[in-house]
Design goal:
The protein is an alpha+beta fold and about 400 residues long. The protein has a single domain (about 1-390), classed as Cytochrome-c3 Hydrogenase, chain B (Orthogonal Bundle), CATH 1.10.645.10. The chain has helices spanning about 40-45, 55-60, 65-80, 85-115, 120-145, 165-200, 260-270, 280-300, 355-365, 375-380, 385-390; strands at about 1-10, 15-25, 25-35, 155, 160, 210-215, 230, 250-255, 260, 325-330, 330-340, 345-350. The strands form five sheets. The protein has a three-stranded antiparallel beta sheet. Strand 4 (about 155) and strand 5 form a beta hairpin. Helix 4 runs antiparallel to helix 5 (about 120-145) and helix 4 packs parallel to helix 6 (about 165-200).
Amino acid sequence: MRKVVKIEGIPLTEGYSGLHLEVESGIIKKGVYFALVPVRGFETLLLGKDAKVAPVITSRICGLCQITHSIASARAIEKACGIEVPPEAQELREVLGLTVRVYNNLLHQIVVSEDLFPDKISQLDFIRKVQRVRKFTGEILESIGGEIIHSPNIVVGGISEPVEEFVRERILSQIDSVMEKLETSFAEFKEALNGMWKREGLPEDLGKHETSFFATDRFYAGEVDFNDFSFITPQEFMPEDLKSKVSNLFPLYRGKPVETGPRARKVLFEGYKPKGGVKELHILRGQENLDALKRIKEILERGRFNGELWNKRAPVGDGETLGVGVHEAPRGTNVHAVKVDKSGKIVYYKIIVPTELNFSAVSSALEGERAAWAEFIVRAYDPCIVCAAH
């Protein structure tokens, strides 16, 4: 006999979300994952605003994904207005984006540590080790971005403040020891993950699905045609009692649902052959932290960033040219699209965030699995629900 299971408020995730599961003999036959937080209306809020303020306003969409919105927003406006950005500024944006990737990914490890460590003393010891690395990444965000949370130095045209040599040298002097700490905590994370899988009796390929992958770059940003996206509204397919409650759209890329994020980047840009399942996703997210720190070191070692990093040309467009800005955020590809008129005002704004894209992947990953394991699957995608209902 098939029954419907409804869960609202998924613990150990960022934001209020829900699950609608059709279950038969304890097995999920159909699952839908969705947001339940209020829509703030950032896309409407931006209309009529001076284009220069968009990176500031969009960074307030979320306290976790703030820099990725600033970067994607600035890049979109620059493309709509034909503004060239100094290459050193692009590199510093990449450093900031990768730093946020580590900062966020480690926060996710802390959040899910309640699942992983049944022993509270071991859990707290793990969290302390992770926090030491997060402290270092917070110092990078503050010294290069201007603040840990909302980075005012990311502006249309580049980076507003140069990086003094002593700052660059200080970061480089610490990064190898931080890498060792990260390697140690990652080894503990994988050991605890394996312990949880054994303890809970979870299959190695729990949450495996056949959804396609989507990403634009391994570290920073690539290009995408905004016309390749389409959207399904909750009113088109959700049960009647949820049509007015669900607050996210369900984007499609080239007419299909996709998974974006660490695994997508690994598959599309490193030739990785996925085994499938959410355990793999946890591990690849952790591996991205190590890769990100190595990339940050590489960028800071090869360049100097104490010169002019800001093209201060006013952002003025024609009102018709669509500028699309992309950034590879911790959770996947973040896309902003904008049109700017001749007076420098925004006349169109649209945002597609990674968690929106991953809603369909999560739903696919749920099908065929035990209903009792549903929350483990959801948490592995590190959903940022607040972003999804921007």
